[in-house]
Amino acid sequence: MMKDKKYLLIPGPTPVPPRVVEAMSRPIIGHRSAGFQAVMERVTGKLKKVFQTENHVFILGSSGTGALEAAVANLVHPGDKVLALSCGKFGERFAELARIYGGNVDFVDFGWGYDIDLNVVKRKLDEDSAIKVVLATQNETSTAVQNDIEGLGKLVAQYDAVLAVDAVSGLAAIDLKTDEWNVDMVVSGSQKAFMLPPGLAFISVSDKAWAKIEKNTSPVYYFDLKKAKKSIAKWNTAYTTPVSMVYGLEAALDMILEEGLPQVFARHALLAKATRAAVQGLGLELLAPDECASKAVTAVQSPMVVDADTLRKVLLKEYGVTFAGGQEMMKGKIFRIAHMGYAGKMDVIIAIAALEMALGKCGYKAELGAGVREAQMVFVGGEHA
Ligand code: PLP
């Protein structure tokens, strides 16, 4: 049996297309050369299209958490009232960062598996005019829940507070109209829907956010966005840019823009729909309800008789398929199937076919083909019913 064929279906890092790998293999040039400045100008322009913004967008050499830290370090002044909206692990992380930078954090936990309730947010903002920063997650990867960022952006825009959104696992998979929806800071990372290896992060900054950042005197060095703004005015960067990753980024952005943003979002929505239909066809329960289900990743409750992590081990050992597990309180209880970035219909079919067989090996009697058929039905639009 061929042991080395692997199917990576986790919500980051995700598979990297050959076109991106090829672009990254080009010879390095100096990061301060005229040639690289031209690359930065071009790539930033393409990145802005994916961010759907005219705001500054910075490319940072870091993981997604680094860019979350950049957002908080630049935005939050010690003592600032911060409204942190959380529905899982990454909402908790954003709040923790705000606390570390001295924020006076009002942590609102909507619960794992639930989305942000805008009525609660409105009440909080109405009750407390001192709130200066609102933190939220677009796609809560730990629970496969996506939030209504359009509603949130339009709501927070009516107040003085600045809205920063963690879109690390959702941008380029789920629509986020940064300018139209008034999202002041959008943070994302390279290794998810951007189809790159881990190592780059991106951050956009609105005029409303700059007004606050310019006044902030908190200590920040590597992630100083004021410094980054000065450098990028000359298409330069303050520190050494990961040159090869930027080459890869341009190839990935070209792929996204050639497919078209609406088409990219529709593809993710279709893959999510098929995955959800398939696991339900196997009699399994989904963690997130349809209304707030992520288009980029699906979280499935493992049947009572099956430990999710044992199931994942069988999937990897027998079929070379990797799903993500549950984090913290969800450990062993859920597994997560990603369908983000360089993902298509056959990735879903592989995931579900392997799942059906692995469930059987773990003692859960799933009818072989029952899930695959549901996914196929979504893909063919019911024409073979
Ligand atoms: N935010 C979200 C929503 C994520 O999914 C992740 C990673 O999974 C992060 C933040 C952290 O990103 P990184 O692991 O690149 O630091």
Model description:
The protein folds into 2 domains: 18-258, Aspartate Aminotransferase, domain 2 (3-Layer(aba) Sandwich), CATH 3.40.640; 260-380, Aspartate Aminotransferase, domain 1 (Alpha-Beta Complex). It has 13 helices and 15 strands. The chain has helices spanning 18-24, 34-51, 64-75, 89-100, 118-127, 149-156, 207-215, 225-232, 243-259, 261-281, 308-319, 345-361, 370-380, and strands at 7-8, 56-61, 81-86, 104-109, 131-137, 139-140, 145-146, 162-166, 185-189, 200-205, 285-286, 297-301, 321-322, 324-325, 334-338. Helix 10 runs antiparallel to helix 13, helix 11 (308-319) crosses helix 12 and helix 12 runs antiparallel to helix 13. Pyridoxal-5'-phosphate (PLP) binds at residues 12, 63-65, 90, 137, 139, 141, 166, 168-169, 189.
Q: Give unreliable regions as ranges.
A: none
Largest sheet composition: 7 strands, mixed
What Rg do the Cα atoms give? Answer: 21 Å
The helicity comes to: 40-55%
Q: How many individual β-strands?
A: 15
